[in-house]
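Supplementary Note 3. Input sequence used for the single-chain structure prediction.
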Amino acid sequence: MSDEMALLVADVFEAAGALRRLGERTARAEGLTQARWQVLSVLSDAPMTVPQAARRLGVSRQNVQRVANDLADLGHLTFEPNPDHRGSPLLVPTSEGRRALSRVTARAAAVHRALAPALPASAVTGTRAFLRRLLDELDRQEGAEDGRAPHQEESS
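The predicted structure, written as discrete structure tokens, is reproduced below.
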């Protein structure tokens, strides 16, 4: 099983790289980067702070801050006062930011529809279920090593 697990890990990394490249092409077609798309997407449900967005995306606060500054310069988001924490403003998408997110999301949906005929829905569903189980186990292992409780996925 360890050889199969090693091959699975290699395949997941390869798929992740291919999906990142596809995401960059999709975002670039709408004048965004994948990182800007991800930050706008995570803010689509509700405004949040840089640390909250970073935790949700699994990246550093510095990375989100840099991307948020870029998005603000482009007019895609604003920094609004946070009534709960004066030193950590809320990131709020502007109407232009919401339009950019809508365009790139629609473009991504078209890409997904083009992939769908080659990937049976039952295989996609099964793969997602397996990956969720794998992620849960990896999280459990990481939590045990760090001496912390396992992460619970935040609701969307």
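The CA atoms of residues 104 and 133 lie 29 Å apart. The chain has a mean pLDDT of 91.
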